[in-house]
């Protein structure tokens, strides 16, 4: 997988929800970051790290991107200040389901376990758990 393909996929997701929720434009960048992604409301900037794809494939990358977009939806439409509270999670679950993803457990802000709507395991945090369940890693060029 090329980083440009991930960039296009992320833009596709972001534009889908900009259009659906009539949000102001958002500048999204898929980047080689060691840390987690960012959603900055003032500059309308959002970053998604490449490692989300490397460690969790397109499903985890998609879920991670959606998580960041939900921050903008909650901020723009609902003027929501609750960060990862109940209303945030409700919106996140709704959007993930549109992509066939079900988050089952959380670890702080992010997902500890995800399945698809048929119960197929998609993601586990940590790496040791993923290896144990034979979830594969992905390469980026
Ligand atoms: Zn967050």
How would the blueprint of this fold be written?
Elements (H helix, E strand, L loop, with lengths): L2 H19 L5 E5 L6 E3 L4 E5 L1 H28 L7 H12 L3 E7 L2 E7 L4 E4 L2 H6 L9
Parallel strand pairs: 1-3
Antiparallel strand pairs: 2-3, 4-5, 5-6
The structure holds zinc ion.
Structure description:
It is a single chain. By secondary structure, the chain is of the alpha+beta class. It has a single domain (3-132), classed as Zincin-like, CATH 3.30.2010. The chain is 46% helix and 22% strand. The protein contains four helices and six strands; from the N terminus they run αβββααβββα. The strands form two sheets. A three-stranded mixed β-sheet has the order 1-3-2. A hairpin with a 4-residue loop joins β2 and β3. The termini are close together. The mean pLDDT is 95. The site of zinc ion has 4 residues, from α2. The site of zinc ion (ZN) has 4 residues, from α2.
Just give the CATH class: Alpha Beta
Which architecture per CATH? Answer: 2-Layer Sandwich
Cα-to-Cα separation, first versus last residue: 6 Å
Please summarize the sheet with the most strands.
Answer: 3 strands, mixed
Q: What is the average of the pLDDT values?
A: 95
Which spans of ≥5 residues are poorly predicted at pLDDT below 50?
Answer: none
Number of helical segments with 4 or more residues: 4
* CATH fold-level assignment: Zincin-like
Residues in helices, as a percent range: 40-55%
Fourth-level CATH superfamily: Metalloproteases ("zincins"), catalytic domain
Rg is 14 Å
- The ordered string of helix (H) and strand (E) elements is HEEEHHEEEH
How many domains is the backbone divided into?
1
User: What best-fitting shape do the alpha-carbon axes yield?
Assistant: globular
What strand order characterises the main sheet? 1-3-2
Number of strand segments: 6
Structural class: alpha+beta
Give the amount of beta strand, in percent.
15-25%
Bound molecules: zinc ion
Q: Characterize the quaternary organization of these chains.
A: single chain
